[in-house]
């Protein structure tokens, strides 16, 4: 029996899917694992790996054309799972770049906008961010207060955004603002006067990634900065669904890495003259982890097959995001207990993963929001108010 893949889920994957998975796993082992504890402790995002991620074809990998890899949803999910096994903060970079910023331009931009930004973003030569959440509008983006007002042949944007990944290192920001009573997307070069991004400090999770406050003070952009193919919240929600899909895979990567660390520790650590893996309570913890990891990967894989078939609904994405992140946090916490006091140090991954996942649990829709999305789907009655 393979303790890493109890149900032989690899047998459900094609040769191409396994090859993508193995390439990303090797990259994580070589470039992320040796340094992630130090990056996390120092709250440092390793900008030097961005072009490496681009060369590996991971930036916008599920998009087609413009230098993007054109991979399937399942292949993207497998890549997200391996990156999540390294660190959720670094997986988030790929998600913000590809599923949010690049997806917005690819789905809703003009041909000129796509040509201007996407090839460089796919290569990791340019970085994008996605400005939706505000200090007073998180779960309820319809209440955003950022505005875009016509001024001559352009627009002037004023407002503030919060928890915006990559903003301080981005070259372009996708800013969602109320424009003439409709939410519209604007491509704002971050060098534009009046645009300021300030990294948020003091984070207890996602320390190897960047989240920022953005201030927009009289930011003037030309008429062709507008994403022309969408108006209303359909635009940002479409991108959020892409990110949520990747999260359900990435969370299982963090959970699997924590379980494997706990298993290895339990087999080596001796107490009362025997390995702690030989104690019934330890085995129960490990078995509970295996059960939820294998079920979570099955949920992600089936969701990916639906996505590739073009039949996936947003409500089904909520199922995977809600379940897999919630279970992954419990797995990481349980894995930490196997390690006793040693588990609270950065010598071991589970507590780092758990801290990261607390943030993942909140962004791209809280547990409460996804519960209500599913509740509406089940009952036909919205209960958001």
Strand content: 15-25%
The level of helicity is 40-55%
Topology order in helix (H) and strand (E) letters: HHHEEHHHEEEEEEEHEEHHHH
**How would a textbook summarize the main sheet?**
4 strands, antiparallel
**N→C terminal distance:** 49 Å
Task: Report the structural category.
Answer: alpha+beta
- Which residues form runs of ≥5 with pLDDT under 50? none
Count of individual helical segments: 11
List the quaternary state of the chains.
Answer: single chain
Name the strands of the widest sheet in spatial order. 4-5-9-8
> How many extended strands?
11
Q: What does the overall shape look like? A: globular
Return Rg in Å: 21 Å
* Mean pLDDT over all positions: 97
SSE layout:
Blueprint: H1 15-32, H2 36-42, H3 50-55, E1 64-65, E2 68-69, H4 73-86, H5 88-108, H6 111-122, E3 128-131, E4 147-151, E5 154-165, E6 172-179, E7 182-189, E8 195-199, E9 211-222, H7 234-268, E10 270-271, E11 274-275, H8 280-309, H9 314-338, H10 350-362, H11 367-379
Parallel strand pairs: 3-6
Antiparallel strand pairs: 1-2, 4-5, 5-9, 6-7, 8-9, 10-11
Question: How would you sum up this structure, described in words?
Answer:
The strands form four sheets. A four-stranded antiparallel sheet has the order 4-5-9-8, covered by helices on one side. It has helices at 15-32, 36-42, 50-55, 73-86, 88-108, 111-122, 234-268, 280-309, 314-338, 350-362, 367-379; strands spanning 64-65, 68-69, 128-131, 147-151, 154-165, 172-179, 182-189, 195-199, 211-222, 270-271, 274-275. Strand 1 (64-65) and strand 2 form a beta hairpin. With 385 residues, the protein is α+β, with helices and mostly antiparallel strands. Helix content is 50%, strand content 16%.
